[in-house]
Design a protein that fits this description.
Layout (H helix, E strand, L loop, with lengths): L5 H6 L3 E3 L9 E6 L2 E6 L5 E6 L9 E6 L5 H10 L4 H11 L3 E6 H13 L4 E3 L18
Antiparallel strand pairs: 1-2, 2-3, 3-4, 5-6, 5-7
This protein binds zinc ion (2 copies).
Length: 143
């Protein structure tokens, strides 16, 4: 596969709509690199250059949902991943219940999600982060 981000991959698939020039359903759009390119296969009408910003570039806030670790060693590891101190994290589980939802920038969410999953703590991406699991590997996330 030559892509690594679901969202970007979808944007890079050719999609067809009505040509503004000849009116036929032959106007094909596709994102190539960082450029949206449109060309009509019927009349040759075309445009290129609309800059494409993949969703994985956005500064959007997303969340992950984390279950309370069963042992204190993992609680310490979790606190480190979340840049919190362990006391604050314990309070979060006490006050907000189990699991807790933690918000951050999208890419930070994905990074944390991977780290937390890797140490065996049950964790899932919030609905706003779903579909971006591969954003960290995406060649476009350097924006
Ligand atoms: Zn992407
Ligand atoms: Zn046309």
């Amino acid at each position: 596969m030559d892509y690594s981000c679901d969202e970007c991959y979808n944007m890079r698939q050719p999609h067809t709509t009505t040509c503004p020039s000849c009116g036929k359903e032959t106007y094909v759009g596709q994102v190539i690199g960082l450029t949206a390119v449109w060309e009509c296969t019927n009349c040759g009408e075309g445009v290129a250059g609309a800059s494409f910003h993949p969703a994985c570039w956005n500064d959007m806030t997303a969340s992950i949902i984390i279950s309370r670790p069963t042992d204190s060693r993992k609680m310490v590891d979790l606190a480190r991943i979340l840049n919190m101190n362990t006391i604050d994290l314990l309070y979060a589980f006490k006050n907000s219940g189990d699991p807790i939802e933690v918000s951050s920038k999208l890419r930070e969410c994905i990074r944390r999600y991977r780290c937390i999953s890797a140490i065996g703590i049950p964790c899932e991406l919030g609905s706003d982060a779903k579909g971006f699991e591969r954003a960290l590997d995406c060649p476009y996330t350097e924006g």
